[in-house]
Amino acid sequence: MVETLWILGKTLVQIVIILIPIILAVAYLTYAERKIIGYMQVRIGPNRVNFSAIPLLRRGRGLGQPIADTLKLLFKEIIIPSNSDRFLFVIAPILSIAPALAAWAVIPFADGWVLADINAGVLYILAMTSIGVYGVIIAGWASNSKYAFLSTLRVTAQVVSYEIAMGFAIVGVLMAAGSLNLGDIVAAQKGSIIHWFWLPLLPLFVIYFISGVAETNRAPFDVAEGESEIVAGFHVEYSGMLFALFFLAEYANMILISALAAIMFLGGWLSPFQGIPVLENLFSWVPGIFWMLAKMATLLFFFLWFRATFPRYRYDQIMRLGWKIFIPITLVWIVLVGLFILMKLPPWFVA
Amino acid sequence: MIKFTFYLFALILIFAASRVITVKNPVHAALFLVLAFFSSAAIWLLLQAEFLAIALILVYVGAVMVLFLFVVMMLDINFSKLREGFVSHLPVAATIGVLILLEMVLVVWAWQKEIPEVAATVAEKPNTVALGEVLYTQYVYPFEIAAVILLVAMIAAIALTMRPHTRAKYQKPEEQVRVKRSDRIRLVNMPSESKD
Predict the structure, then answer these.
(1) Are A109 and A296 in contact (CB under 8 A)?
(2) Is A171 on the interface with B (CB under 8 A)?
(3) Interior angle at CA A313, CA A308 and CA A314, nearest 5
(4) Residue A145 to residues A45, A77, A81: CA-CA distances in angstroms?
(5) A349, A192, A338: which is closest to A276 by C-alpha?
(6) How many helices (DSSP H) and strands (DSSP E) are in chain B?
(7) Cβ separation of B63 and A160 shorter than 8 Å?
(8) Which chain B positions have a beta carbon within 8 Å of A137's beta carbon?
(9) Cα(A65)–Cα(A31) distance, integer angstroms
(10) Please, which residues have CB within 8 angstroms of residue B163's CB and are 6 or more apart in sequence?
């Protein structure tokens, strides 16, 4: 009994160690988004809220903004529409944040830094991300609002469609790595930057990342919240902390997609200088987690860059892209990967 | 500990399954079905059948039930009409119910005798690896036949429900992509005119 309790306590502490940085990262991702898009549009972005008590951060360029936003949302009233389904209305944001955070259990941040080192890690991630859509469905239906419901229909169709392309892209990675364990997938990419899977699986990498943008309903695939058409989408009726949970889930999912892309295609915690004579030794002291975070940050920057650059897709074009372009390409490339493995194409498929 | 977890999920499963048929609102019923799937997946995990458990969540919860909910939410169902004819359908429904129950009892009873063997082979290898090895070697023909049957059903479903609209206008993306500036824009030279 004591042992069970000890394991339970240890796991709880580990969960907290993972979750707190993620929630902080989400908060500061919103800040980064506003700043980066601001600079891309030649304005400054948030610059009013600073930590004036801390001397170094007194001129912090608005670094306190996410904290101020969170506090504001915390203290706002939660309004529950009178004709809504009360229980489902309240549980929907929880259903959307829970899988977004639960998926982090199997993500390895560096060699061996993983909460649950399970064999079917990739399957678990796929299952968790596919559950995330329930929050949106239930929110749209429970709020009993036409706009929310329309948005729900859009999101559901979009997410289900892009999940297929995403799943096939992951199948390619599984074939190349020969394992469902995320740690083993990274280990299979050892060698040099050329050995990483982005090169032999380039079309799958591109498709995975674009499908990831579509899965998280980010611009240019954000028809779910097309402001000009359906106000704000499935969360029109939500306010205060309930709204913040949806917000948190969206950004946590963005970070998750970036982490997965880094692990599956960009060699996870492996150093990009591996295999290069002088540089390898020069950078050998850098811990793996730094490379992992750097890769995630680069991919996240792409998310923000897309939002600042592309106009919103038309809905039928989204569906066309998913079903008629991405899925056929992934199917063809999976067959090709099979051929590569049969041919033992160096340097990736020699083992 | 495992026993406690099993009974917890089993209780939730039975509760959710019974709510599926007793609850009035069809959307709530579908959500209870999701809960039932979830609990049975958890019970499978306790059996170390991690592939089946995750596949159940991935396929049924993540895809099938999402589409199911999608349809149920959009239907405008008249509940009072649905409840009519409960008594007149009872004999047929009861017979089917008893038949299903009998089948289940038979299956479980026959399976229970062989349980030690099955459990021993399960633990040897990771579940996913073992399934993959058997499915693509020993059972490759049944597997392929099942796949073809599913494909036929899928194409048939599309063929049956697809009614081409004669008046509908379709966009042709390949033509849209090929459009050049000169196809859409005509520059007209207008000499400037005075007001009167």
Answers:
(1) no
(2) no
(3) 150
(4) 33, 19, 9
(5) A192
(6) 11, 0
(7) yes
(8) 66, 69-70, 73
(9) 7
(10) none
pLDDT per residue of chain A (351 residues) written in tens, 0 to 9: 788 888 888 889 988 988 899 989 998 999 999 999 999 999 988 888 877 777 776 676 788 888 888 888 889 888 888 888 888 888 999 988 999 899 998 888 888 788 888 888 888 888 888 888 888 888 888 888 888 888 888 888 888 888 889 989 999 998 888 888 888 888 888 888 888 888 888 999 999 999 999 888 887 888 777 777 777 778 888 888 888 888 888 899 999 999 999 999 988 888 888 777 777 778 778 888 888 899 999 999 999 999 888 888 888 888 888 888 999 999 999 999 999 888 887 777 776
Which residues of chain A make contact with B1, given a CB cutoff of 8 A?
4
Distance from CA of A317 to the nearest CA of B (A): 9
How many whole angstroms separate alpha carbon B58 and alpha carbon B67?
A: 13
Residue ranges of E strands in chain A: none
Q: Using the structure block, give the residue that is written with the tokens 């859409």.
A: B184
Interchain pair B62, A153: CB under 8 A: no
Please classify residue A340 by burial: count the beta carbons closer than 10 Å to its beta carbon, then call 0-12 exposed, 13-18 middle and 19+ buried. middle
Q: How many CB pairs under 8 A join A and B?
A: 68
Size of chain B in residues: 196
Contact assignment for B63 to A163 by CB distance below 8 Å: yes
* pTM value surpassing 0.90: no
CB A334 within 8 A of CB A165: no
